[in-house]
Amino acid sequence: MQTLHQFSNTDDLIIEVREARGTTVKNKQIEEHLAALPIKSLKDTLSLSEVTSHDQGSTLLSFRNQLSLHANRRASDVVITTLQTLLNTVWKACSAASEPAADPEIVRRLRVTSRRALVALSVYSPLLPKTLTRFFRQHLRDLRQAAGVTRDYDVLSDRLYQHLPPTSRVDDLFVHQLLQLVAKQQNENRKSICSMHSELSSWNWPLRVATVKNQVRPKKMVYLKFMQNQIKGSCTRFSKVANSTKKNPSQLHRLRIAGKKLRYALEFTPLEYMNCSLRESRKTLQKMQNKLGDFTDHTAASEILKQFSKEPLADDMLFVIHKMQREEHELATLSCRQFFGWWTGKRRRSMYKRLEKALDNG
Known about the structure:
single chain; mainly alpha; 0% strand; flat
C-alpha cells in the first residue's frame, strides 16, 4: 500500500481548525480515549504491508502442504480430500475470528479461506450435487462479505494509528474520536461474525463437511486431466473480464476478483503440472491483485469516511473527515492510474499467450 500523504499535514490542519474554533484538549482525555479503544490494531502485530508480504509465500506453501493434489489419482478422490480440507479450514478460521477481540490477521484469513473454498466449489462443480454446492456457497459468501467489511475497518484503524501525532504532542482529539467511531463499528462487525459462527454451529458445519465424501460423484478421470479442463474454463472467464474492464471502481473490483479466482484455481493444480508458464502467470496475477489492492483499500476508506461524515458530529470533526475522505479519493484515482500504467495490453496479451501455451502443452 502507498504511504498516505493526506495525514502529513493533519497536524497543521487540526491546529488551523482549533485556532478558528478555540478547541482545546487535555492529554489526560486523549489517554482515556486510547485506553477505551477495544479492538486490537494491526499496529499491535505487523503492519498490513508486512502481513501481506510475509503471507503471500508462506500461506501458499502451507496451503499446498495441507492438500493431496495427486495428479494420477481419481479426480473424485482428490476432490473429496481437498474440499473437506478447505471447508474444515474455513470452520477453524471462523471459530477464531468469532472471538470479540480477534486479531485483524485472523479476520483476514477467514476472508481468504472463504474465497478459496468458493473457488474450489466452482472448479469442482462438475462432480458436486447442486444442493451441496448451493448450501455451502451461500454460507461462504456471507462469511467472506462479513470478513471483508471487518477488514476494511481494520485497515482504516491501522492507518489512523500510524499517523497519530508523536507522544510529546498528543493534544489531538479528532483522530482519536475517529478511531473510536471505527472501533465501535469494528465491534459490530465482529458481532456479526460471531452470530454467523453460532448459526453454522447450529447447522452442524463439521458434520456436513464429513458427509461430503458421500456426495461427490465418482469420476474415473485422473485429477490432472480434470483440472486441465477446468483451468481452461477459468482462463476463458478471466480473459473476458480483463478485456472488458473500464476505469471505474466496480469494474476494477470485478477484475481483481476474477484474477483471484484464476490464481486460486491454479493453486489446485498438481505441482508437476505447474510449469514455468503457469508459475509466471500466477506471479502476474499476484502482482495485479496487490496493485489493485491499493485502489480498493483507498476506495473502501473513502466510502467509510463518507458514511462517517453523515453522522451528527461537531463541525470541526466533520471538517477533518471531509478532508481525509477527499484525499483518499484522490489516492484511489492515483492508484487506478498507476495500475493501468502497469496492466498494459502488451502485458495482458503476454500472460494470455503463456496460459495458452501451458494449457496446450498439458
